[in-house]
Amino acid sequence: MRKLEAIEGVMAKPSSVAGGTALFFCGKEFGHFHHDRELDLRLTKKVIQAMALKHPEGSVHHPSRSASSPWMEVRYDDAAGVQRAVALVRAAIEQL
Which of 8, 65, 86, 88 maximizes the CB count within 10 A of its CB? Predict the structure, then answer.
């Protein structure tokens, strides 16, 4: 959260839809945490395709999410995964 809140315009607030914590950029929600190792981001289909991202296997929260969804679950378990998640958050806010 410290790395995300350091991005100008990013705020964390309780999610009224998903429960837990949601991420907002300049007042617009663009993501939410499923738990402390998974973030669901609205990246857009264009970004997902350009970055060749794949929906993770074994999703508990969105097991039937369409491959064409603009949302992507991002999992992270180590420092490299956190850095990747931060980069994806930056990509998500660039689309807003």
Answer: 88
Other CB atoms within a 10 A radius of the CB of residue 69 amount to 15
Average pLDDT, the chain: 92
From the list 19, 28, 20, the residue with the least C-alpha distance to 11 is 28
23 near 32, Cβ under 8 Å?
yes
Distance CA 45, CA 63 (A): 18
Instruction: Please report which helix (H) or strand (E) contains residue 22, including its range.
Output: strand 21-25
- Please report, as a single letter, which amino acid is at residue 21: T
Pairing of strands 71-75, 10-14: unpaired
CA 63 to chain centre: 16
Domain range summary for the chain, segments of one domain joined by +: 2-94
